[in-house]
Protein: ATP-binding protein
Amino acid sequence: MARSLRVAPEYTNKVKLALRRNGYPSQTKFCEHITPAISTVKNFFSGKAIDYEYFLEICEKLGLDWRETAYKELENQPTNGEASPFITGAPITQPRYFFGREKELKRLFNLLKRHPLQNAAIIGKKCSGKTSLLHYLKNITTTPAEKLRPGQKSDWLPHPETYQWVFVDLQDTRMQSREGLLKHILASLKMKAPTPCDLENFMDVVSENLSSPTVILLDEIGVGLQRCPELDDTFWESLRSLVTNHTRGNLAFILSSPESPTELAHNTGHSSPFFNIFGYTAYIEALTELEARELIASLPIPFPDEDVEWILTHSQCHPLILQILCRERLFTLEEGENNDNWREEGLQQMKRFADLLH
Ligand SMILES: Nc1ncnc2c1ncn2[C@@H]1O[C@H](COP(=O)(O)OP(=O)(O)O)[C@@H](O)[C@H]1O
Ligand SMILES: [Mg+2]
Structure:
C-alpha cells in the first residue's frame, strides 16, 4: 500500500492561503484542475492523511514544497510486523525497511571509521535510493537490535556512539540560506549558534568545539548549487577549509546528487575546490539479485516462486520497482486472488519509473 501524507498542523493556514494565492476561489474549483477527487482535496485541506502521490500533486499545483508541508511522520515509520511492508516513493528512514547496498556500505564506512575521516559522493538517478542510503548510514550503527531484521548487520563502526551525524536536505527551503543552513548544522551538533551566525563565526565555533567524529550528509547538493545564491564559492571553500585544516580529521561530508560533484560545480558555474575533496564515489543503481530476493523474502506472505522470478525480471532488481511490484502482488494475495491480473497493474504502476531501468 502506498504511504499516505498529511499537512503538518503548522501549515494548514499556509495551504489555504496558497489556494487563494494561486487564483482558485474554492476547493471545488481547484479540484477541477487535478486528479484527486473532492473528498481527497477536502481531507488535504483539513489536515487528514491522503495518498502520497495525490499529496505531491496538490502541493506541486499550489507551488508548495511537499517535504516542508508534510507532517514528518516518516521518522515514525512503523517498526512492527503489522505495518505495510512496502514504502514506495518516500525515502526509507527506518533501517529495518532498507535492503542491500552492502558493497557501498562497506566502502563508505571504511572511509568513516579511521582518522582522518574521508569524504564521499553518492550518485544515482532520481528515486534510485540516495536519500534512503544517507538515512541508513546515519541510523544503522546505533539502532537497537530489536528494531532491526534478524541478522541485519549494524557493527560497521568500532565506536558508533562517538559519532555525530548531521542530515541536510538542500531541497528544504530553510537550508537554502547561509544562516539557515549553518544554524541547522550547529543545532544538530548541539553547539550554540553565535551572533551573528555568519560564516566566520560558524568556522570559529566548529573548529574550537568539534572533537568527535562528525559526518555531514548533504542530500541533493545540486539544488544548493543551482538555486541558492547565498551558497556561493566562498561558502563552499570555507567548508572545504574546515574539513581539511581545522577539524583534526574529525569531519567528513557525504553528498548525494544525480551528477558527479565536479561536473555539477562546473555546470553551475562554481569553482570546484570543495567538490574535489570527494575522493570516493558510490554509483547506486539496482540491488544485487541476492539483495532483491532478501527484500521479497521479508514479506508477511511468501510469494509463489514464479511470481518471485517475474518480479526479479521485470524490476531488474531496482529497489523502487521491486517495492511497487511486491506491493501489487501482496495486495492481491491478501485479497485471495490467484490469477495473474496483478502483473498488468504492476506494469502499469511501474511505467512512470521506466527511465530507472536500462
Ligand atoms: N535500499 C533500499 N531498500 C529498499 N527500498 C529502497 C531502497 N532504496 C530505495 N528504495 C525504494 O526507492 C524509493 C526511493 O528512494 P529514495 O531514497 O527516496 O531515492 P532518491 O533519494 O534517490 O530519489 C523508496 O521509496 C523505496 O521504495
Ligand atoms: Mg532523495
Q: What stands out?
A: The first strand starts at residue 4 and ends at 5. The chain has 16 helices and seven strands. The first helix runs from residue 12 to 21.
